Amino acid sequence: MSTPSFDDNSALPETAVPEAEFISLTHLSPSTELNPVPSRGIDLGFFRTYVETLETAGYDYTLLPYGSSSADSFVTAAAVGTLTERIKPIVALRPNTTPPTIGAQKLATLDQLTQGRAVVHLISGGNDAEQARQGDYLPKSQRYARTSEYVDVLRRSWTEPAAFSHEGEFYKFDEFGPGFAPYAGSIPISIGGQSDEAFAVGGAKADIFSFWGEPLDDLRAEIDRVHGIARDAGRTTLPRIWVTFRPITAKTDELAWAKAHEYVDKIAANVSKVRPLLGKGSPQNVGSQRALNFADKSELYDRALWTRTAAVTNAAGASTALVGSPETVAAAILDYIDRGASLVSIRGYDTLADAADYGRHVLPLVRQELAHRKATGRRGPLQSQHLGNYGAEYGTYATAGRP
């Protein structure tokens, strides 16, 4: 693998974004993929500590996930808003669970209560069995068409000054509104996925488009694709790009790799306990298929991207890791910022401890480099000094102890 140029004080690539924000995912109990704790409840003390840790650590957003057997994301988002002053709660919302006029009302209420911090991430649904658990039997292509209509109704509900009626392919109502308004203007709408349908809807209509962590060149090609669709739709403001990783860090690259190998063995042993409803075999969603394809080709990409965690979980959700010291992981995050990602989600496998560690050791390094860039218009030294897999020793750490 050839090493890209990361010379100190060099010009920034044209694709680099000037600023980036950080996202985590809020966990409701101490159960992890490393140490599953069977429960269908919320550990209130842990939840409170976790959210307060995110606020203290300096995250900008937190995602409140949704599943057929999980806690309700609207209620947990409202709790996050109450427990914090700054973090923006992202509500994961499946259109099949909440009619769009009611979804608009709920989101605007959350936005008012948090004084403009609400965000929504629309999940069209990538698994037929999971959708069917709550009575949704639409095929995947129609689920994205429904999401497209859902976005239109949400935005109109927030902005229409008078009552309006609607008759579309999936929703029909008479004389709704004017709806309850957000705190100020609108609410950012995020869409993710890697099917053609996801790109079509997200490129044309989303404020944010989300990806799982992929090799740099592949992700940049996908960014170009979604932005091309946005331009073809006549948009002058392009969707922001959100990319998600599961970093594994320690004081040095060598120690981080020792931890990574220990983690992956535990994750492989526990995956059926943590995600029993997802089933086995080839996943339906394109994002998981891509992740497994990358893992099949190589375990290690670019500076620090490791795919073995995706392989052992059957790519059931965001699972690719960045492995290394805080400096190496921060430099790898900057590589993605250089390719156009302005929202970076980092959540660990040791959830609470990792959230705190990232806040102490990773976020400040990235922000320091971005501040240097803003002041000088040039690169700082972090990427050139912490090469990770672009250097000589890193690969030996990655393979140490492997058969």
From TrEMBL:
Q: Which domain of life is it from?
A: Bacteria
| Gene3D superfamilies documented for this protein | Luciferase-like domain (3.20.20.30)
Q: Which SUPFAM superfamilies match?
A: Bacterial luciferase-like (SSF51679)
Pfam families to which the protein is assigned, alphabetical = Bac_luciferase (PF00296)
Q: Which UniProt keywords apply?
A: Flavoprotein, FMN, Monooxygenase, Oxidoreductase
Which residues does the UniProt record annotate as the domain Luciferase-like? 42-342
Q: CDD domains, from UniProt?
A: Alkanesulfonate_monoxygenase
| Database matches in PANTHER family | ALKANESULFONATE MONOOXYGENASE, ALKANESULFONATE MONOOXYGENASE-RELATED
Q: Under which name does UniProt file this protein?
A: Luciferase-like domain-containing protein
